[in-house]
Amino acid sequence: MPSWPEPDAVAPDAAESAAGPESPEQRAARLQAEAILVDGHSDIPSVVLGGSLDLADPGREPTPTELARMKAAGITGEFFSIHVGTSSWQKPTPLGGGAARRALDLVDATHRQIERRGGAFLLVRRAVDVRRAKREGRIAAIMGIEGGHAIENSLSALRAFYRLGVRYMTLTHTTTNDWADSAGGALEPGILRHRGLAPFGEEVVREMQRIGMIVDVSHASDSTMRAVMKVAKAPVIASSSIRAAAQQRRDLDDSLLHALAENGGVAMVNVWALFLDEAYAEQSERFLQKHGARLRELGEKYQGDPRGLREEIDALRAQEGPIKPPPLSRIADHIDRVVKVAGVDHVGIGSSFGGVDVREEGLAAIEGLPNITLELVRRGYSDEDIRKLLGGNFLRVFEQVEAHAASTETVLSGDGSTRQLTAAELPAPPEPPPAPQRPWQPPPPEQRPILPAPLPPAPRPPPTPAQGGAPPAVDLRLER
């Protein structure tokens, strides 16, 4: 696919020095150091809660999203995903609790690490905190809930999560909830129950924007995204979902990219090869068809342990032989495409490091992000546009969401919506498929019921001659 913009259409803004103009590598390194680089997805909270990662111990190297690697990549802001699996929502337990309990545990695990490593992290409560983290050389931790079912249909819970530092929320994950339709996941199709957003879902969007929480439409169905655009008064984001050549249910098509641009939002490009390369997507589909049942079992077994799940999936993939990753240029191709459709002011980076299996060559881990910057330099993007793509666009959305919340001149709970989801609004669960009709067969002898032996017939009384020669009437009733 031809790259866009053309090199002669955008001035490179290369810096001059006494030694001559910068090389592409030098310019990319400078921009990487100057930019406020924001990555739109990390599963660190789930790993921390599982006890398998101490971010201050780079020698253990349990995951590519540890602290040392984020610093090496020049990361300023990292989305810390409070990922709440659907099992905690659909099957709460006395010990593990439900979806809100799972989210609270993840939030607390994130706070625990930030407080223990205060010199390395800064919890983001306002957009200005991201800029402060850049000045101080720290990592800005931007907490967000992945899966709106975590609020358990409670706007009070939504506001409580905001108080704890949650600053964005995806309305759905891979399962449709009680008020918003999902695009589904790799192992399950999306179930459309609401034709987008239910009335309560519209209220969730309004309340999020009133308090200053960013609405994330990643994982939502197309109809849900369109419904959000009709309700939203402030920009929204798609933190890790876009479409260019690959066709995934979760991705955004051109019409949605146009709508997102009109809204002022940002689509953050996911670097997972599944979303970016058709050849890899076909290989992955064959793998899913062959191992789907086993993958579902692993997903249930390793809820909240993405590292353990990744190790099991890697072992399963090793049985199939290596899969050649697509080239790094595929990411830049998609950035080009989204820039062409939505405009350079509406694109960002949403990597999903630590949560995916195969990435592009040169991007095996988060420290490969400078290679994306170098590719953008080679394609002729200006310094200003590269800074926007790396994080400036997201920061602008964050600031505009805050400005909208301030314009409402309301307080968090005192003016909060008291709207509740009613029983009448709950969608009917999907009906199970009818059982197959089988011809009747007698059960085997060991399964047949044991019937009591029949009673012997009651003895008949002897006939007594009646006067007039007529025999007496016989009582035909059975004795009991």
From TrEMBL:
Region ranges (Disordered): 1-28, 423-480
GO MF entry, a single one: metallodipeptidase activity
GO BP, sorted A to Z: proteolysis
Biased composition, class Pro residues, residue ranges: 427-465
Name recorded for this polypeptide: Dipeptidase
Compositionally skewed regions (Low complexity) per UniProt: 1-23
InterPro entries: Dipep_AS, Metal_Hydrolase, Pept_M19
Superkingdom field: Bacteria
